[in-house]
Amino acid sequence: MKIFTDTGAWIALADKNDQHHHEAKKIYHSIQKRNIPLFITDYIFDETVTWLHYKIGHSVACDWGNKILNSRMVEIFKISDEHVNLAWELFQKFHDQKFSFTDCISFTVMNFLGTNIAFAFDSHFSTMGFSVIGEGDSSGIMKISNVKQKIAKDRK
Questions:
Q1: Hey, which bits of 2-156 come out as E strands?
Q2: How far apart are CA 141 and CA 28, in angstroms?
Q3: Each residue's pLDDT tens digit in the chain (156 positions)?
Q4: Region class of 74: left (phi > 0), else alpha (psi between -120 and 50), else beta
Q5: Which stretches does DSSP call E strand in 85-148?
């Protein structure tokens, strides 16, 4: 079991002025301590480094881009044409929601990989029925413990 990590979580980790910075650091350190693998899509990588570049600066974007690319904990999932088409269907279907196309890509990949846990700070993932670590709740660390137990159970 891997945890999908959304752009908002990476931004909160990188930006000391982000409202979720301290919570994101606690959650991320807990994930690291428990050796739980993370994954992102190439769209999330793009969105993260682009946001950091424009809002904080090029050097911060490069530092965080290198941290993600060189991390043994983070896998980057490459989006295929099939995923784009499925995400586009979702994007069109949920006209009543404020999902970005990148959100829809994320939902599609999470479903494809059978992962239902996201490290995120927005309600879009819970709206789509995923479990969220973050989103302003203080139970994030407890959810991580539950993930670790599930990983151990799946390995048996």
A1: 3-5, 38-41, 74-77, 117-120, 131-134
A2: 9
A3: 899 999 999 999 999 999 999 999 999 999 999 999 999 999 999 999 999 999 999 999 999 999 999 999 999 999 999 999 999 999 999 999 999 999 999 999 999 999 999 999 989 999 999 999 986 554 555 555 565 555 555 545
A4: beta
A5: 117-120, 131-134
CA angle 66, 69, 70 (to 5 degrees): 80
Residues 8, 132 contacting (CB under 8 angstroms):
no
Question: Parallel, antiparallel, or unpaired: how do β-strands 74-77 and 3-5 relate?
Answer: unpaired
134/118 Cα distance (integer angstroms): 8
Report CA 64 to chain centroid distance, whole Å. Answer: 14
CB 145 within 8 A of CB 124: no
Domain count, the chain: 1
Question: Is the pTM here over 0.70, yes or no?
Answer: yes
Domain CATH number, residue 73:
3.40.50.1010
Print the domain residue range for 123: 3-155
